[in-house]
Every structure is written in C-alpha cells, then in structure tokens.
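Q&A log
Question type: sequence-to-structure
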Amino acid sequence: MVRAPAAQGAGRAGELGVLWSLLRGQRREGTLAERLEAFYAPQARDYDRFRDRLLHGRAEMLALLAPRPGERVAELGAGTGRNLEFLRDHLADLESVALVDLCPSLLALARERAAAWPNVRVVEADAVRYRPPRPLDCVYFCYALTMIPAWREAIDNALAMLRHGGRIGVVDFHLPEPESMPGRFWRRWFAHDGVHLSSAHLPYLKAHTTPLRCKEDRGAVPYLPGLRAPYYMYVGLKRPPRSQART
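Response status: OK
Response body:
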C-alpha cells in the first residue's frame, strides 16, 4: 500500500477544514471584523491552497493594472497577501505597497509573506475608512468587494485615495443575470459564506471611472464539477474633477 507524503495528507486535512467552514457558513451576528475573524481564523493556513482554484483572474487583472516603477499601490481587502506574488517581478521597483484588511488571522499570514519586502506595509483597517499618508497611483480589490457590505463606499474611498489619473482595478464574482435560475443559485450559495454577489458593481465602476479594460468570464468551482461561477475584471482611471474636465 502506497502512503501519501505527510505534507499531502496535512493538505487534504486542511482542505477538509476549509470545506467544513464553508458548510457552516459565516455567522450573522457581530461586527464585520468579528464575523470575518470567526469565519477565517480556523481556515487561515489553508486559505490560499483552496482559493487558488476558486479565485480566477487575479494575475490577469494585475497585469492589466500594470503598476509601474516608483508608484504607490494599495490592495483593499488583501487577506493573506497572496496577490503580492502576482506582482513579484515588479514589487522591488514600487515605492510602496499597503495591504489593508480587517481580519487579524489573515493579516498574520500577510505579514509573513511581506517580511522580505521593506516597501510593503500590512495595515489592519476598514477598506471604507482607510486613508494612506499620500495619494496613490493604483488601488485594487481582489474578490473583496463582494465581502464588503458598504461596497459603494469602499469604491468611493479607493477613488479618493488616488491621484488624478490614478488607476483602480477590481476582480470579483459577478451576477450578470440576477433573476435567472443560475443567478439565484449563485447568489444564495455564496451568501451563505458572507459573499454577496451583485449585478451593480460594473455599472457603478463604469459610472465613476473612465474604463480602460473590462472582461466578464466564468471559472471552475472546486468540488462542483461542471459548474462555472461568473466573475469580472475591471481596470479604470480616476476622472478629474468636473470643473477641470470642462476646461
């Protein structure tokens, strides 16, 4: 009989723990920070292994956002800081990167990941209220807006952080046909774990920024063969104030 390596066995056990957390769902009582910590703390160490097969389009969105040397960047809802790895080839050339999240257990992993990069700062803060010390060149959300109840305010806050002409990037689950049978299924399935799908993200982004790139797609879902969840990628520019835009 062939025995699996211990690491693989631990990985499978950890993934079962993630699945158990997903089946139990996110509790409804408490503040957002308390709900996130209660939900993610037991699965934090296995968070990335499972979500890498679920959260599609992150590398592609960050390639479209294209942070440039010397720029100041922030990720709102950064979780474990996994998305730093998609910026690895450019990270040392950036002036600063802020990883902002409310969940201490996920941020502990982000601090481990960021330790090698002196220009990366991990911040425990609300994406709706956090403000950097200086205007930013890029702000992005990776599968975070659907977990922020006040997502419009989070987008507004992100735009307020940006310099004029700065770039915002978003990749997240989508709800293109909210009243269809698949739309109702995905909305209810994700909501159990505190992920609230909306068809209003893209219209809001397009109404408040100048679109550069927008793409809608579908991606595989672990343990649900044949089902593909809708998601979108968006990159836009902060518009100048109306008074400047008219001159």
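Response note: The two ends are 77 Å apart (CA to CA).
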